Structure formats: C-alpha cells, structure tokens
Amino acid sequence: xxxxxxxxxxxxxxxxxxxxxxxxxxxxxxxxxxxxxxxxxxxxxxxxxxxxxxxxxxxxxxxxxxxxxxxxxxxxxxxxxxxxxxxxxxxxxxxxxxxxxxxxxxxxxxxxxxxxxxxxxxxxxxxxxxxxxxxxxxxxxxxxxxxxxxxxxxxxxxxxxxxxxxxxxxxxxxxxxxxxxxxxxxxxxxxxxxxxxxxxxxxxxxxxxxxxxxxxxxxxxxxxxxxxxxxxxxxxxxxxxxxxxxxxxxxxxxxxxxxxxxxxxxxxxxxxxxxxxxxxxxxxxxxxxxxxxxxxxxxxxxxxxxxxxxxxxxxxxxxxxxxxxxxxxxxxxxxxxxxxxxxxxxxxxxxx
Length: 352
Known about the structure:
- 23% of the residues lie in helices and 48% in strands.
- By secondary structure, the protein is an alpha+beta fold.
- It is elongated and about 130 Å long.
C-alpha cells in the first residue's frame, strides 16, 4: 500500500511529456502563417510601338444614282435680271442698280447674294476709276453744276422787262470740294430800274470723313433795293451731312463770320456775326425734285435770313423747269425800306 502511494506521488512529480506540447506548437505556427502577407514583385513591361500605313478610304461610288456631286448647278442670276443690271451699269445709273438689288432680294431670293455681290464689285471698280481720274485731273477739269436762266417782257399798259440768271458750279476732289455761285437779277418797269441784285460766292470744303467737313465761305452782294450797295461776308466753320443717300441729301453748317455793309444811306457797318446754313435736296419721285436752302447771319446791328424754296421738273435730257420762291429778311434796314423782300421766279435749268 505504501509502495503504491509512493509510486503515485512520483508520477505526479514528473514533467509533462513532449507529445502534449506538440499540438500547442503547431497552433502557434498556424497563427504565424495566418499573419504573414506574401508580396509579388511587379513585372516591368516594355512599351510596344506598332507602325502601320495610314488608312485609305476609297471615294464613294454612286453607281447608278446618276448624279455627280461636282456637277450640281448653283444659283444663277436670271437672264432678265442680268440684262437689266447690265443696262443700268452701262448707263452709270447707281440708283437704278440699287433698285434692282432691292427687288432681287424680294423677288428672287436664290440669286440675291449674286446680284448684291455683282453690284458691289461694280461700285467699287467705279469708285477706284473715279478716284484715279480725280488724281490726274487739273484744277479746271471735273466741274459739274447747273446754269439757270429766265426772263420776261411785258408791253402795252405796262412796260416791264426782266432777266435772271444763276450759275452753281461744284468740283469734287478726294479731300476738297469747291463751290462757286453767281446770281444776277435785273428788272425795268416803265424805263426805270425796279430791281437789281448781284451776288458772287466761293466756298471750299475740306472733307474730314464721309459726312463731316470744315468749310470756308466768302461772299459779295449788292442789292440797293434792299438797302445796301455792297456787302462783304467771310466765314469759317464746320459742316455735317445729316443725310447723304440717293434721292435725299441734307447738309448743315455753323460757324463765326464777319460782315461789312455799305448801306444806301451812306453809312457803313462791320461786325462779327454767327453764320448758319442748311441745304436740302429731295427727289420726290423720278423726274421731280424739291430743294430748300437757307442761310442766316446773326450780328449785333443787323441780322439777315435768306431762304430759297424750289421745285424742279425734268423736261428733256439735261433740261429742267424750275419754280422758286425767295425770301430775304433784314432786321434793321435803312429808313424807308421794309424788312422783308420776296421774289417768285420761273426759269429753265441746264445741268451738266
């Protein structure tokens, strides 16, 4: 009994066998494997360049469609419109060309751009030719204007003879415009002179652009029935074309002036003044034109306003018939003279 008890105590005092520790080591090893991460090395791949010829796309083949794209006709000017354009261009009628372009846009939309382009090219070529002609012309060439003449004779109970004449000449340059004006009115009644007026003027304009310009104006007048033997005027200022298109033009001017007047009462007067003027030309319809010109001098002693209203009807070629009404106002005329004088006139006009 004692021997059994001693054997049992000895067995308990012995260490654990190695076999029992093996499962724990395998478990620890398994835990370590689970925590390990494997990293794969990245592979370096060299870029591959592929060289290939450009892709060629064959042209489309319409086969039996029967339409060649290069032969499709574009818009064209109708023969009638072309004939009218040619006639207007040969006559140098810019207003007629503008009218044809206007109606081509509404009546033939397909060819309106062609008509406009042809008209524009014609105008540009015409302007270039005109500018070249102006450069080569002398000072006595390229003048245009009009000459107006009228007269009447009355016999019997009244013996009246009257003549009137007006010349208005203009030369358009590239930068300068020159205008010369002359007028004469003469009338005798019963052998006694009842009207006598003479006027002469010159006005140069320097063009700043298509509408603005600087003007100078010099003028001489003589009208003893208005109360002065001689009147000299000089002015300089600025002008502007408010309207400048076919059928309608309007020019206005304003600037300082100086006037000297020899009155019929033997007094002489000279002073600074302000000058303003306007000139309107309006074509009412083909062959009929209305004009209105007015000028005024405002000064300390005597102010003057002159207005000429007229209507002109074309007769034949360069000839026209003209009816005009002239009003002249003097604020301080000499004693025995009225302030306002009017003249109605019928005359023939030759334009060139």
